[in-house]
Specification:
about 30% helix, globular, Lyase, Ornithine Decarboxylase, Chain A, domain 1, alpha/beta, 8-stranded parallel barrel, TIM Barrel, binds ligand LLP, 9-stranded mixed sheet
């Protein structure tokens, strides 16, 4: 459920008509709903209320500090994967002891930054990383709390580019080596072992791979405890999928996912962490865009929008589908026709959908891409020197610009002409 519905014939974000936002801020623009973010975060909390837990929002999905503050104020932790995301979480007021640092390539500088600013745990992904982290923490007179990210070699049955839990993926330590790595960790002066971490992929629409992976985690917890390690936290990762269309069967609900966690690791007495991103933010956002031209091609009509692949990369990158709906509600029985919906960027990959059945649209009309709140704005680029798309947050009948559209002059001003060019 989200809070983007038609009222009086106009698509609204909560109580704000999208026409009003388009007029005030221009298009393209991302629009997020406070009520939807709040509701989705609450569903995960509820799914884990049977145990001590922390829901760490995966900042990579939507890193605007207003979104992070909203979730942080509700009690969320944050899962970050770079010094930049760590700084955003801190700027949003999230305390260090609610920040988990993941990622395969943490640098020495990022480790120092997090140790200095406070950290709940590092999810360590390799032995060289473990050694470096120990050295740095010890040199600061600290012990870094860690979980080792274990790769369970489970097929997440999702898009190949976002599956992470198979042995051929770059992520984590092979589960067969985990006991050796924990033994090494226990002997390092700058390391404190606190738990185990896993993340098997994103947009999972089936609970079976989670169950398979978490059963392996339960076995590993028992084995590591038998080896003498104090495993008190389990980080189950993120990855629960969302419905991207209204006609498909919906993926499992957070409450069902929570039950899988309970069934598999619930009896171990560990604090549970999860790192959902898409499921909290995905359906809490839309990308609002305007039709620039309607162009008749050979046997097809192109709807040319002012949003492009640089603003919403997912279709070009993963062949992802986002429902595109008109902001002005079509009349009952309005006829539909096929459109190829494209952006202005100069490559054929800048195609959002081919042959989509939509009600007739004309230049100047507004459309909304649904389910664009996660991995939308964060993946945007300035390709074709198109300014980064702005973001708006709605709450009830209020809205605020939470990231401004930068002027082109500001983008160009970052470039430098070398002195030798005169
Ligand atoms: N934790 C870790 C360690 C992750 O790598 C990810 C996502 C998450 C949590 C959050 O997963 P989620 O709950 O959002 O599925 N750009 C792609 C998605 C990449 C996901 C990468 N890792 C897309 O647009 O589909």
């Amino acid at each position: 459920m989200d809070h983007f519905n038609y009222a009086d014939g106009v698509l609204c974000a909560e109580d704000v008509p999208l026409t009003q936002i388009a007029q005030a801020v221009g298009t393209p623009v991302y629009v997020y709903s406070t009520a939807t973010l709040t509701r989705h975060f609450g569903l995960f909390r509820q799914a884990l209320e049977w145990t001590d837990h922390l829901v760490c929002f995966a900042v990579k999905a939507n890193s605007n500090i207003a979104v992070l503050k909203l979730l942080g104020d509700l009690g969320a932790g944050m899962d970050v994967v770079s010094g930049g995301e760590y700084a955003r979480a801190k700027a949003a007021g999230v305390p260090g002891d609610r920040i988990v640092f993941s990622g395969v390539g943490k640098t020495a500088g990022e480790m120092r930054q997090a140790l200095k600013g406070g950290i709940r745990q590092f999810n360590v992904e390799s032995e060289p990383e473990l050694e470096l982290l120990s050295q740095i923490a010890a040199s600061m007179g600290l012990r870094a709390p860690i979980a080792v990210r274990v790769n369970p070699d489970v097929d997440a049955r999702t898009h190949a580019k976002i599956a992470t839990g198979k042995s051929e993926n770059k992520f984590g330590i092979p589960i067969a080596r985990a006991r050796d790595v924990y033994a090494r960790a226990a002997g390092l002066p700058g390391i404190e072992v606190v738990g185990i971490d896993m993340h098997i992929g994103s947009q999972l629409t089936d609970l079976a791979p989670f169950r398979q992976a978490y059963e392996k985690m339960a076995d590993l917890t028992r084995a590591l405890r038998a080896d003498g390690h104090a495993i008190r936290r389990l980080d189950m990762g993120g990855g629960l999928g969302i419905p991207y269309t209204r006609d498909n069967a919906a993926p499992p609900l957070p409450i069902e996912y929570g039950q899988v966690i309970r069934d598999t690791v619930g009896g171990l007495g560990c604090e549970i962490e999860i790192e959902p991103g898409r499921n909290i933010a995905g359906n809490a956002g839309i990308l609002l865009s305007r039709v620039i031209y309607l162009k008749q091609g050979e046997g097809r009509d192109f709807l040319i929008l002012d949003a492009a692949m640089n603003d919403l990369m997912r279709p070009a990158m993963y062949d992802a589908h986002h429902d595109i709906v008109p902001v002005i509600q079509p009349g009952v029985g309005a006829s539909v026709r096929p459109y190829d919906v494209v952006g202005p960027v100069c490559e054929t990959g800048d195609t959002f959908v081919r042959g989509a059945q939509m009600t007739a649209l004309a230049a100047g009309d507004l459309v909304a891409f649904r389910s664009a709140g996660a991995y939308g704005a964060v993946m945007a680029s300035e390709y074709n020197t198109r300014p980064l798309v702005p973001e708006v947050l709605v709450s009830g009948d209020q809205f605020a610009v939470i990231r401004e559209r930068p002027p082109v002059e500001e983008i160009i001003a970052r470039d430098r002409i070398p002195g030798w060019m005169g």
